[in-house]
């Protein structure tokens, strides 16, 4: 299983708000390392969506927002659109003997 | 414009060797870590390892240490991922990605992916 834990799936109707959680531990998120989020549309490479817990790269709509608290982080999407249907992954750094970079298992967002 | 362009899809037999590539452009190739991420069919992202082309410092995930070799040729701004003896379980999409920001590594630019199929 993944070092960071995400729900396998979430869903919402167009216009609604959804959140995706990402739970880590004291060696990654809880140690103060940043959380980043990626969006992977079907058949495409992942794209950086949120970095440094809550920052959006240029071009990412402000409907996407991120937050972090303790050993967890969250991605929120407001005003859900059909084009948001994708897989979402959280990522952080881990200071243990395991991998330096760790991903969550991914969450499939379905727009109903 | 930063771009990472990967080599094309490969079909190989078990036991064969393989080296795939990722060419960077639009930035100083020697100043950023670049790494590889595996995505097996229908599965999530797995971080494999990274290399700093400036001095060839290389780090691997324990899951991939000894299974693959990451290298880079800074003279042609290209990173590589290679296998000496492929297994069917190596069948996956492989992405290269630029890593930025030190211990708070984020992967800000990604290649388009290279699909590796290993089948007898």
Overall geometry of chain A comes to globular
The geometry of chain B reads as globular
Number of H/I helices of chain A? 0
Count of individual beta strands of chain A: 9
> What is the structural class of chain B?
mainly beta
Please write out the topology:
The complex is a heterodimer of chains A (112) and B (120).
Chain A: E1 9-12, E2 18-23, E3 36-40, E4 47-50, E5 64-69, E6 72-77, E7 86-93, E8 101-103, E9 107-111
Parallel strand pairs in A: 1-9
Antiparallel strand pairs in A: 2-6, 3-4, 3-7, 5-6, 7-8, 7-9
Chain B: E1 3-6, E2 10-12, E3 18-25, E4 33-39, E5 45-52, E6 57-60, E7 69-73, E8 78-83, E9 92-100, E10 106-110, E11 114-118
Parallel strand pairs in B: 2-11
Antiparallel strand pairs in B: 1-3, 3-8, 4-5, 4-9, 5-6, 7-8, 9-10, 9-11
Task: Give an overview of the whole structure.
By secondary structure, chain A is mostly beta strands. Chain A contains no helices and nine strands. The mean pLDDT of chain A is 95. By secondary structure, chain B is mainly beta. Chain B has strands at residues 3-6, 10-12, 18-25, 33-39, 45-52, 57-60, 69-73, 78-83, 92-100, 106-110, 114-118. In chain B, strands 2, 4, 5, 6, 9, 10 and 11 form a seven-stranded mixed beta sheet that branches. Chain B has a four-stranded antiparallel beta sheet with strand order 1-3-8-7, with no helix packed on it. In chain B, β5 and β6 form a beta hairpin. The interface between A and B is medium-sized, with 27 and 26 residues.
Question: Which key terms come to mind for this protein?
Answer:
A: 3-stranded antiparallel β-sheet; globular; B: 7-stranded mixed β-sheet; 11 strands
Q: Could you write a compact summary of the structure shown?
A:
Chain A has strands spanning 9-12, 18-23, 36-40, 47-50, 64-69, 72-77, 86-93, 101-103, 107-111. Chain A is an all-beta fold and 112 residues long.
